[in-house]
Write a structure and sequence with these properties.
Layout (H helix, E strand, L loop, with lengths): L5 H54 L3 H12 L5 E5 L4 E5 L5 E2 L9 E2 L1 H14 L3 E5 L2 E7 L3 H69 L5 H22 L7 E4 H13 L6 E7 L4 E4 L1 H18 L4 E10 L4 E8 L27 H12 L3 E8 L3 E9 L1 H8 L1
Parallel strand pairs: 3-4, 8-10
Antiparallel strand pairs: 1-2, 1-6, 5-6, 7-9, 10-11, 11-13, 12-13
Protein name: histidine kinase
Pfam families: HATPase_c (PF02518)
Catalytic activity: ATP + protein L-histidine = ADP + protein N-phospho-L-histidine
Length: about 400
């Protein structure tokens, strides 16, 4: 069984935590519903006892029994309404004591039949009525849940909401703290790498100058290419030294910058891979050349690795005048990416190569979004046919034209 990369392990733990949270939520809801069912059953029993006591009060002449039934009647804790078969209200209990349901003068009370009608309709929607025969007339007792039962129904949702908010805040704080620590480690490692590369790069530059003088190799092609590689090492070291600090963006022609790097890169890969660059040479954007070259390098390396044997890489530069944007599309004829992995390929640790670290596209996304205020995404891909990555930048040339 293939080992999981760090991103996949992280996602697996998220699923496990989500499943555990779901079990807790389901258990809480089940137990609360169990309590609600038992309390509702108890309240209906009390309502039935109250209804029967009312019947006995109205039908009995026994004073002792009457006192007993009055005591039972007064013990009811749920709001109730007694109505006849026509729906006319004959009595109420446990509702607003400042309102009358019949038009009788009462101190401090208001005749409000609409209120009692609304309560009656609500009670009908909650429970089946209790049917009685009082003085030979069919009577119905309606009731609704007590305030305690209503609160208990809402309690698990309130509880789960509070727990969810707490977990979200804790997860956000933990992730932010961990990300900050990781960023500090990466920044320190990157700057130390740049520092360590400085000495051998300076030495190599000096050795190349000595070679030119000793062997009269000023125009030698191989020495020139060696010099280009050492200069590339200088750029790499400069890239690492800039990690963690806000890079300075300067306006550059996007086509010219991409062309310079493609010309350097294409002579250093297999001749079985062809390169094609096309597009508008007048589009400009704010770029940091060392970091932007790194972005193009990562995309081209990714494209080369995706091509098995012979293939081609096409770089097309275009724009959208309405949205004031510059597009850079990098298309390869490689093995393609499943649609389900379009977002995953930018996650740290994701790689399809045995010796890959899975950091190239992750760094690329960070450099475009955080440092160049742009976007990068998989525009299109088809298994066995190839992939197109798109970079979106702000067109600074259109900005100036608009202002002028």
């Amino acid at each position: 069984m293939a080992s999981l990369n760090p991103y996949q392990r992280k996602r697996r733990w998220k699923y496990l935590l989500l499943a555990f949270a779901s079990v807790i939520a389901s258990g809480s809801l089940f137990y609360t519903n169990y309590l609600v069912h038992n309390i509702a059953k108890s309240e209906r029993t009390r309502a039935q006892v109250w209804a029967m006591s009312m019947r006995q009060i109205l039908n009995s002449d026994d004073n002792d029994f009457l006192q007993y039934t009055l005591a039972v009647r007064d013990s009811l804790t749920v709001p109730a309404i007694v109505a006849d078969a026509k729906g006319d209200i004959k009595g109420v209990r446990g509702l607003d004591t400042t309102k009358n349901y019949i038009d009788l003068p009462s101190p401090g009370k208001k005749y409000d039949p609409a209120y009692f009608k609304e309560e009656l309709e609500y009670m009908k929607s909650q429970h089946e009525p209790i049917k009685l025969k009082i003085l030979g007339e069919e009577t119905f007792v309606y009731y609704k849940d007590s305030a305690l039962l209503q609160q208990l129904r809402l309690f698990p949702y309130v509880q789960l909401t509070v727990i969810a908010i707490f977990l979200l805040m804790a997860y956000t704080a933990f992730s932010s703290s961990r990300k900050s620590e990781q960023d500090q480690v990466w920044v320190g490692l990157a700057k130390e790498t740049a520092h360590q590369l400085g000495t051998p790069i300076s030495s190599l530059m000096a050795w190349i100058e000595l070679m030119k003088e000793k062997f009269n190799a000023e125009d030698d092609v191989l020495v020139a290419e060696m010099e280009n590689d050492v200069k590339r090492l200088e750029i790499v070291a400069d890239r690492f030294s800039k990690i963690g600090s806000k890079p300075v963006l300067e306006e550059h022609g996007v086509y010219a910058v991409v062309k310079d790097f493609v010309d350097y890169f294409k002579v250093r890969v297999s001749k079985n891979i062809g390169f094609e660059l096309s597009g508008n040479p007048h589009l400009k954007a704010g770029l940091n050349i060392p970091l932007f070259d790194w972005v193009i390098e990562n995309l081209l390396k990714n494209a080369v690795n995706a091509i098995d044997g012979k293939g081609s890489i096409k770089i097309e530069i275009g724009g959208n005048k309405v949205k004031n944007q510059v597009f850079i599309d990098v298309t390869d004829t490689g093995k393609g990416i499943p649609r389900s992995k379009f977002d995953t390929v930018f996650q740290p640790g994701y790689t399809t190569r045995k010796r890959g670290w899975g950091l190239g596209l992750s760094l690329t996304k960070r450099m475009i979004e955080n440092y160049h205020n742009g976007q990068i995404f998989v525009k299109d891909s088809e298994l066995g046919k190839g992939t197109t990555f798109r970079i979106v930048l702000k067109n600074t040339r259109n900005d100036k034209q608009t202002k002028s």
